[in-house]
Write a structure and sequence with these properties.
Blueprint (H helix, E strand, L loop, with lengths): L3 E4 L3 H10 L3 E9 L1 H7 L5 E8 L6 E9 L18 E5 L3 H8 L5 E2 L4 E3 L3 E7 L5 E7 L2
Parallel strand pairs: 1-4, 5-9
Antiparallel strand pairs: 2-3, 3-4, 6-8, 7-8, 8-9
């Protein structure tokens, strides 16, 4: 897998949130023209993208903010059991610290922090654009 792509309405907010999770901005670009339209299947597209990577460089998320055509709601605030890509999971070192750092960026705890068999503390948070993120702090 090379990357996962997500469309957002506020590129800067998405980048800031995921930087707080430890991801690194790999690069930004403006995208438009026949090549892009041919690949994504939208005529007259105009967007800005930001590619972010995990610190080890293994995984990437490409965020796209479309200026044209106008983005449509794809059900970004659907619950976890809705069909489609529903969440991204991150392994973190300190769950409480991570939640405190994400709160100023609008992160909201979905329900509870739970501990499974003294192995992992985990929870879901709702991030920018309603993106569901699972945070996992392994205890062993």
């Amino acid at each position: 897998m090379h990357h996962v792509g997500m469309t957002v309405t506020d590129l800067a907010a998405a980048v800031a949130f995921f930087e707080e999770l430890g991801m690194e901005l790999e690069g930004k670009a403006h995208m438009e023209g026949a090549f892009v339209d041919g690949v994504i299947g939208l005529e007259g597209s105009n967007s800005d993208i930001a590619m972010m990577k995990t610190p080890d460089g293994r995984y990437r998320i490409e965020f796209s903010q479309f200026h044209a055509p106008r983005s449509i709601d794809g059900g970004s605030r659907a619950p976890i059991h809705a069909l489609g890509l529903r969440h991204i999971a991150f392994t973190i070192d300190d769950l409480d610290d991570t939640l405190a750092r994400l709160e100023p960026h609008g992160a909201k705890l979905v329900k509870n922090i739970e501990t499974y068999k003294d192995v992992v503390r985990t929870c879901y948070v709702c991030g920018p654009e309603g993106i569901l993120i699972e945070l996992c702090e392994y205890l062993t």
